[in-house]
Amino acid sequence: MLSKNLRALTAEFVGTLLFVFLGAGSVVAFAAAGPAAASIGTLGVALAHGVALAIVVSMTMNISGGHINPAVTTGLWIADKIGGRTALQYILAQLLGAVVGAALIKGILPEPAVTLARAGTPHLAADVTFMQGIWIEAILTFFLVSAVFGTAVSPEAPRIGGWGIGLAVFVDALVGGGLTGAAMNPARAFGPAVISVTWSGQAVYWIGPLLGAAVAAALWKAILLPRTR
Looking at residue 36, what is its pLDDT? Predict the structure, then answer.
């Protein structure tokens, strides 16, 4: 019988692989469709990310907690909901899953679209500076991690599986997709960047999400989570 830890790490690996393949893959798919999909591109990509994450979190929640994001794992570690060693193992599994998911995009989807979309690697808009990108990603991730605490972590959370988290990603992607790509997830940015060898602005997708997750976790730990007697 597989150990609980191995099951959890496998769930994080497979879950992140699927999320990156479906999320970044949607960017590549709309690039392949060209002008015909321009009118629904932003909405379609946001919907693909949100629904994919909702399903992946729901299916892995009872195995690993459904983190699927190093920023979420870091936030839960800050809030003392996961140990440091386990958090590090989760993050490594997530990053590896993201690289494999992006590799599948490169290996399966049409090469011209993969190249054009840089395998779905997020990037800053031309008029968004490095610091603006960090703050945008931080605020978007603050909202996402707050949704994680409010809909999944808190004992007072409604029983809605990963759908609250998926909806948070959907809304964030609508708001920030055209500015930073609305990654909110270092693994989501890292995997496609490795496969496409595109490192421009990569630090934004680590600093911003980790900062936003840390602030959200501190707020929930200090004030918003119910006190245990």
Answer: 60
